[in-house]
Amino acid sequence: MTNVRVRFAPSPTGYLHLGSARTALFNFLFARSQGGTFLVRIEDTDRERSKKEFEEDIFENLKWLGIDWDEEVLKQSERTQIYRGIIEELIKKGLAYYCFCSKEELELRHQEQLTRGETPRYPGTCRNLTPEEALSKKKEQNYVIRLKTPERQITFKDFLRGEIRADYRQIGDFVIAKKEDEPLYVLANTVDDYYQGITHVIRGEEFISTTPRQLLLYKYLEWPLPIFVHLPLVLGQDRSKLSKRHGAKSIKEYRQEGYLPEAILNFIALLGWHPEGDEEIMSLGEMIKKFKLEKLNKSPAIFNISKLNYFNRFYLKNKKPDDIIELIDFSQHGQWLGNEFKAKNGVSYSREKVLKIIELGKERASFITEILATVNFFFEDFDYPAQLLIWKDSSFEKIKENLNFIKERLEKLSSDHFNSEKIKAILDEMSSHNKGEFFWPLRVALSGKDASPPPFELADVFGKERTLALIDRAIAKLI
Ligand code: GLU
Predict the structure, then answer these.
(1) CATH code of the domain covering residue 415
(2) Is 244 part of the annotated catalytic residue set?
(3) Which of 183, 318, 361, 368 is the most exposed place for a label (fewest CB within 10 A)?
């Protein structure tokens, strides 16, 4: 264990989305690669927008992705006492003060500043109220608590970007709490990072603008600074802010659409990280081994949905049916009766057969949700026009003859030997001159389609009885 302590601090105001999952992943990878600690902290200072449902979604989907944490800290709403203490201390030291200005008044001042060509900021109206004045006003008026900002510039260091310059004169005295018991994000987040011993604050670039405010709190409270690492933005391919339009969704939605956690992880890992070497396919374990904070980029990452789809196809191809079966929703195709699957067309398949179906289905699928759809002839009654049975310019008669021939040979094969290897051998043997005239009609007879897994594989899954029945049906079509 090193003393590295990092956190993922989502606000539960929406479902876990791709961008926050990336922040979580980089924090996790850094902690794991350093033997440090990774904690998840729910930042629910925005009471109106924070929802239990979102909180649960965040934890559930982090788990689904395989990002596990060492500590789950109390929500901010359960720590109001701590923030209250800090707010009171700042007020006592004269570093923060009560502000009674109304919204209308502030709006008016802002307009005046804008007309004068100044950057709008709080004009400092309540800055110099005496404690007695403030106390008596507090009894009858609404208030917020503001932090005093100095009249100067500041530079601070970001791990990836180096020196960053900001100006407190443009920020002005900013609000740190609505009331003593209602701290805002800027305060609660800083206090938590300090009390939770966070050594590296790794978060999205959109938080750079809050950093100068937080630094002032560290200074006033005489706390040591963590290292700030602001992750690059993720932009759409047109370089505009990432949105649904570019295909960016919540993890929950990707999951429903049939994406695999491995593919999403691999994809988000490369949004802003350039690992050594050219290999892009990485498991979580490999990512941990390779991860270096120094290798993160500062320029924006571009979200490319086709790359995510490519990863998904790759991981799907390489995943064993045994690991996929649990991820598939079978309900539309029939039902499980113990270890047997009774399909809608009345055919029953053993678990072994279903694994075989998954193996065949995943060859043509890019998503979990497509697997069964590509081989739906196993589950549903299907029909096709007789003409489809005809290979190129063969005749009805020829195809009928061949199907009869296939039928005769397969009838002789005992159920025990009715497997793809044996069936393929039979087909190969009888079709030495013209494969298409045998393989093609059998494929159509068993699937009703012009593209499917090889017919001997279909026959193997269907078993002898159903295969022969389907061949009979095809023959009957060829009058
Ligand atoms: N609560 C912030 C959010 O919603 C996190 C800020 C931070 O990581 O410092 O993303």
Answers:
(1) 1.10.10.350
(2) yes
(3) 318
Distance 193 CA to ligand 1 centre (A): 11
Q: Is 211 in the pocket of ligand 1 (CB under 6 A)?
A: no
Domain boundary among 231, 265, 284: 231
The domain containing residue 187 runs over which residues?
Answer: 79-231
Mean pLDDT, the chain cut into blocks of 10 residues (479 residues total): 89 96 98 97 95 97 97 89 97 97 96 93 96 94 97 97 97 97 97 98 97 98 98 94 87 95 97 93 97 96 95 96 94 96 96 97 94 96 97 95 97 96 96 92 97 97 96 96
Q: Which helix (H) or strand (E) holds 350?
A: strand 348-350
Q: Which of 380, 397, 412 is the last residue of a domain?
A: 380
CB 5 within 8 A of CB 198: yes
**Residues whose CB is less than 8 angstroms from the CB of residue 409 and which lie 6 or more positions away in sequence, other chains included:** 426, 430
323 shares its domain with 405: no
Is the Cβ–Cβ distance between 348 and 340 less than 8 Å? Answer: yes
Catalytic residue from among 244, 289, 292, 295: 244
Q: Over the stretch 164-220, which tens digit does the pLDDT of each residue have?
A: 999 999 999 999 999 999 999 999 999 999 999 999 999 999 999 999 999 999 999
Question: What spacing in Å lies between the alpha carbon of 204 and ligand 1's midpoint?
Answer: 8
Radius of gyration of the chain (CA): 32
The answer on 255 and 203 residing in a single domain is: no
Residue 154 and residue 146: Cα distance in Å, rounded?
A: 19
Residues 6+ apart with CB under 8 A from 365: 316, 371, 373, 374
* 352 is a domain residue: yes
pTM of the model: 0.89
